[in-house]
């Protein structure tokens, strides 16, 4: 059964997992490890750090229908020492972060599609928050595959990493690439609780891939704007690329991804590949 975000339940689970990951020693709290039945901070310790009542924390973690204010969300984020992406995720779950787009992107904005083409010879593609691939140039086709030959439902970078027989083995550090993708999807899932297509996609991945299901359950959240990937290309051999992800101001739900060679050897390999 397809399920979009139950923000109350997910908020409760997220708060519990983040509380349990904390080390009491990092907060200068009394060392009473023998009395601690569960890892991390106690609820009363989080309540004291956030300046709220213990009962309030209990009710939040039991998903009893509370909707914390922006001030309380900020206090909880500080108390739990959340990273920036985790803080944004918490604000999304509490429905306290303003939406930047009213309409979900399912097709490439024409100016952005033209920009993707104009970025040649740099491999480039346009995606939405689900990782659906909306537009691409010829260099990206030669580097990865011809997305135009795939059914629209398979033009999704996470689907390709998990289920496509060639792309599944394409990345040298596949676990890191997939885990980063899972963390991005969880962030998008909270930011778009009304997106049934995204919920369907996550349900398909969870049912079809044990690794995805396990990593999804860890509730890691992170937006990867840039980084490096190592690829095993069937023609060009080992290639390292740096990627940069840009968000257009007028189309904030569309993501422009650009690849660049990470070293001289990769640059030469890409030039030969694109010249074929």
From TrEMBL:
InterPro entries (UniProt xref): Cro/C1-type_HTH, Lambda_DNA-bd_dom_sf, MLTR_LBD
Domain HTH cro/C1-type: 33-87
SUPFAM superfamilies: lambda repressor-like DNA-binding domains (SSF47413)
TM region positions: none
Name under which the protein is recorded: Helix-turn-helix transcriptional regulator
Organism field: Amycolatopsis minnesotensis
């Amino acid at each position: 059964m397809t399920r979009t975000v139950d923000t109350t339940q997910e908020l409760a689970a997220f708060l519990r997992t983040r509380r349990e990951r904390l080390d009491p020693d990092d907060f200068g709290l009394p060392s009473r490890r023998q009395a601690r039945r569960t890892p991390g901070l106690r609820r009363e310790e989080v309540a004291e750090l956030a300046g709220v009542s213990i009962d309030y924390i209990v009710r939040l973690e039991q998903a009893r229908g509370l909707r914390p204010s922006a001030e309380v969300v900020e206090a909880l984020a500080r108390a739990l020492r959340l990273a920036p992406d985790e803080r944004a995720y918490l604000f999304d779950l509490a429905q306290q972060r303003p939406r930047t787009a009213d309409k979900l992107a399912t097709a490439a904005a024409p100016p952005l599609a033209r920009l993707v083409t104009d970025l040649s010879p740099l491999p480039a593609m346009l995606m939405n928050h689900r990782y659906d691939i909306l537009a691409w140039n010829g260099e990206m086709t030669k580097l990865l595959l011809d997305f135009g030959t795939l059914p629209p439902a398979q033009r999704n970078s996470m689907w390709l990493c998990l289920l496509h027989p060639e792309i599944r083995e394409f990345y040298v550090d596949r676990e890191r690439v997939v885990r980063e993708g899972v963390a991005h999807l969880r962030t998008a899932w909270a930011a778009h609780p009304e997106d049934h297509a995204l919920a369907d996609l996550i349900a398909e991945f969870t049912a079809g891939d044990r690794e995805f299901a396990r990593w999804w359950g860890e509730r890691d959240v992170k937006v990867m704007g840039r980084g490096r990937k190592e690829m095993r290309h069937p023609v060009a051999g080992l290639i390292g690329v740096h990627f940069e992800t840009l968000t257009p101001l007028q189309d904030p739900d569309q993501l422009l991804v650009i690849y660049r060679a990470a070293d001289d050897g990769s640059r030469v390999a890409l030039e030969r590949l694109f010249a074929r």
